[in-house]
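Exercise 7.
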Amino acid sequence: MTVPPGRRERKKAATRQKIADTALRLFLERGYEAVGIRDVAAEADVAVTTLFSHFASKEALVFEQDDDFEQRLTQAVTGRAPHEPLIPALRREIRSLVRHCTADSATPIWRMIDESPALREYEESMRLRHAESLATAIAADPGLPQSTTAGRTIARFVIDAYSLAREAPHPDAALDEIFQMIEAAWAVTCPSRNSTGTAGL
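Solution. The predicted structure, written as tokens, is:
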């Protein structure tokens, strides 16, 4: 049973969201490079130290759902139904994430990211971290016998699938194509436990 968050946790989450929303609004209005941490703190009516207690860097303000993204990926592995094949579960979660990130409202944000070397570098490091977390979840599953290298490789493929599909003209079609290749790679890795369910795209 999930215990609802207490008043302190709710207040902390609300403050974090307020800071993130304020930062994104300022970045889109004035340009990412033109806005400083102090500008965001002042506009959100919080101390700079409070801002840094929620976000480790200016770049993290843009990727405020980073932790949620990572948790959703690992839970696609750890929370899937008994005997559910791995790859279809990951494909379903990646499709949901891509659809969220390709909504019209996200277009200005991705344009801002693409135009900022600092944000592109941060996104790359974030993707590597997500891949490592996903690989750890795969390696910890006793029903998924494979080498550490194989698990890390599949995790990288899955993270790259998200990025490639997000940038594609037709994200759903791109995901279907990419995951057919991931499915084939996984079948080679675990021939005795070939994943099924490829029709459930």
